[in-house]
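Sample 1 of the test manifest.
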Amino acid sequence: MGVKDRKLRERNQKKELILSAAKEIIEEVGIENLSIRKIANRIEHSPAIIYHYFQDKNEIVDSLLEEGYKRIVLALESLGPQDSTPEQILKESLMNYIEVALAMSEEYKIVMLSDSHVVLKHTSVLFKGASLERPAIQMLCKLLKNSYCENCSDDYVEIVAQIVWSSMFGLITRLILEGHKDKQFKQSIVEHHIDFIINSLKSMKNNGLGDAFYEI
Amino acid sequence: MGVKDRKLRERNQKKELILSAAKEIIEEVGIENLSIRKIANRIEHSPAIIYHYFQDKNEIVDSLLEEGYKRIVLALESLGPQDSTPEQILKESLMNYIEVALAMSEEYKIVMLSDSHVVLKHTSVLFKGASLERPAIQMLCKLLKNSYCENCSDDYVEIVAQIVWSSMFGLITRLILEGHKDKQFKQSIVEHHIDFIINSLKSMKNNGLGDAFYEI
DNA sequence: TTATTTTTTTGAACACTGTTCAATATAAAT
DNA sequence: ATTTATATTGAACAGTGTTCAAAAAAATAA
């Protein structure tokens, strides 16, 4: 029965067609102006057909946000080869994370500020075990273990990674929401922020914290 | 001509009536389901009349968000009398800030994540001079000057305040967006986050940083 | 008080929105 | 060729923000 396979393939192709049309429209007029009729118009079908492939508009948006999340993760993983100390690598990775996030600010904003359950399945980071499921947290944990958290328990490293990530998320979100354009200003504030974070990590290590007083 | 005064008063009263109707509707069905017709229905007028008092729906929403911002500021200023060291006062204030923000999470989310120009006139914090215009930053600067930033320049204290605030904003935003309910979990993560921040402040002071290398 | 002007209010319409559903066209299976 | 299953549509429903000419109400002038 190769027919069913083909049917399924065609169905998925049409779903992709709808999604890519939606993506184009979003790029042109923003996600707040995406509409079923605009999608239908672009793929030269009646609006009703879309409900044959998706349950509702939300499912389309959630699909695109999931795609967007994957693109963000991919972009964030694109870090050139580093041949310096683990501490420097950590700092450069943090800088890189913020830079990449700001370079795709619209997408980052929409995806990372979404409170859709579907999207949060990928974007939530404040839970025990996040270091196993979230690439960003996982990467951060690795970098921390190589630098300032060598003697910390895995549980504690995860907490520190979550703190560092949330802190950077706050900065990134403010920079995007407030619409800052001045590159020099951004550069300066980002550097200070990261220095502030690393400062804490450094003193943590020096004072031999890390394990001990961690209790959920 | 007391008539014109009365007219103006009545006009403002009707504006208030519209706004409070809108506020009620938002509390009942959420801001995403607020509509002009629902407002009109509640005040027992035709939808069109609303455009005699407001330019468009956006102006109404922005008005409410401005009100909301004022309520947030007010709530955040409600900090009981403290009779401990400046360091402890700072820490308790940070804890209090997060606690209050989480207690009014829906409002905090809507207001602080808004990218409306009107709202950002009140909520933006990442600009030079924020310590003079933003209550939260101002308060933070004062607390920092009394504790870990005694010998820092005003410019640098402002930067540190912005960093601390952004960092907490990130944590609060994640906690709200991810919809965490478990109070113990929240408590634990909040404490770790604040300890992380204070750790940096402490080492900053010990290492005699603060002035010198600040350059915009 | 009457007439005129100004302000307030409305009904109806326009151009959208998401969504549903019976009817139809197309393709597959018998 | 006929039945079954799938794909597609037109039309409608109920809602959205917004505009505008017309009507009602109130204030001012004669």
